[in-house]
Amino acid sequence: MSTHVLIFPLPMQGPVNCVLKLAELLCISGISVTVLNTVYIQRNLLRHTNVLSRFSRYPNFRFQTISDGLPDDHPRSTARYNEVFEGMKTVTEPAFRDMMVSGCFSCKSDSPVTVVIPDGLFSFALDVAEEIQIPLIYFETMSPCTLWTYLCLPKLIGAGEVPFNGIDLDVLIKNVPGTETFLRRRDLPGFYRYDNLTNPVMQIIMNEARQVPRAHGVILNTFEALDASILDQIRSLCPNIYCIGPLHTLLKSRLPKSTQHNVSNSLWTENRDCLSWLDTQLPKSVVYVSIGSMATMTVDQFVEIWHGLVNSGYPFLLVKRPGSVTGDYDESKVPGNIVGETNRRGFITTWVPQEEVLAHSAFGGFLTHSRWNSTVESMVEGVPMICWPLKVDQHVNSRFVSEVWKIGIDIKETCDRFVVEKAVKDVLDVRRSEFFRSTKVVAEAGAKSVSENGSSWMDLNRLVEDLKSNDFVCK
């Protein structure tokens, strides 16, 4: 029976972006692939990208959709993402099981799925895979350092380190091996501060911590040289790890140059006008600012960041995604000097092709919310970061950026114009040579990993061979 892989991403921009890159890499390798998106995600993907025409060159690829259980007009924002999980638990989980056991992906179908690659948060998928006796490999699109804190959650709870209140946030964490000297309470995901262990988010992470080590393997968007010490820790629980990152550059290394352009997996309309503006700027002089596809900030936070950028004296590209600023925002009340300076040396837009933008020579810094995709994309281009983490994995990532990889500044919970101004000046001027050296080392290591016979190149080959092996056959 031929290999048929089903990839099932978390319905968010970052995971969907990663999954489509993995899908293309597997298609290139001759494996049949189906990507299972929620109806909502698929609709936005088709609206804003050329993904259908791009994948039409692979006869071994197809999309399939599944409901997330929510009405069409639901915003599916970060603030209401618990409702997405509730909808998926009620509707998506049973529908997925039906598809796998007796439906379009079952052994009774014309093209049965032989391997499942779901997001690590989909703990229910492992139970289904075991029921029908096919292998499952989790795809963790978060950082290895965050995954390790998830896998350590039972140990943290047992030791009484989690949950904790909002007091003494600089206390070091003792039960995440390998991080004892630098990881603090404030660097853990925000939901570790909840008082109630029955909180739905905590339960989801606890299920992930239990299920992931039981899988046949774990795919990570990282490279060995970057995360070696943490990967050694993860292997103590999950011995079969495939490190195939930086995923977007690994894909480029396997694609002909003629097909590398205009590749977008965006769920938003991208404004490319900023690229022409960047062409007019000096090398390494511009600060790029984006908090991603789902995060939000208050009006006050947005204004503080805006003031800090203007006061720094440097040019800036500021992404203000629709819905990213909550509250009563009235641009007519913004001081005239801020608007004037922005018109002179700033560019504000709704959404941009981030991989392409970060690759532009004009950038000297990236003020980011520190989600893993953004962090990796910045690393690849050697752009130092100013980390302003907001949710989930971002607090852990920002700590590693500043204290382990030393490729940026972590400003954590602070959102103050003076802090932003100082951070911009540090990255683009005061500590510029220091960050240039450290980011260059990381970028070169990332490039080496995806070159022929590099660590990620070889791990992808191993993944492909494992997927094609006789052990991965529908029984």
Automatic annotation (TrEMBL):
<protein>
    <recommendedName>
        <fullName>Glycosyltransferase</fullName>
    </recommendedName>
</protein>
<dbReference type="GO" id="GO:0016138">
    <property type="term" value="P:glycoside biosynthetic process"/>
</dbReference>
<keyword id="KW-0808">Transferase</keyword>
<dbReference type="InterPro" id="IPR002213">
    <property type="entry name" value="UDP_glucos_trans"/>
</dbReference>
<dbReference type="GO" id="GO:0080044">
    <property type="term" value="F:quercetin 7-O-glucosyltransferase activity"/>
</dbReference>
<dbReference type="Pfam" id="PF00201">
    <property type="entry name" value="UDPGT"/>
</dbReference>
<comment type="similarity">
    <text>Belongs to the UDP-glycosyltransferase family.</text>
</comment>
<dbReference type="GO" id="GO:0080043">
    <property type="term" value="F:quercetin 3-O-glucosyltransferase activity"/>
</dbReference>
<keyword id="KW-0328">Glycosyltransferase</keyword>
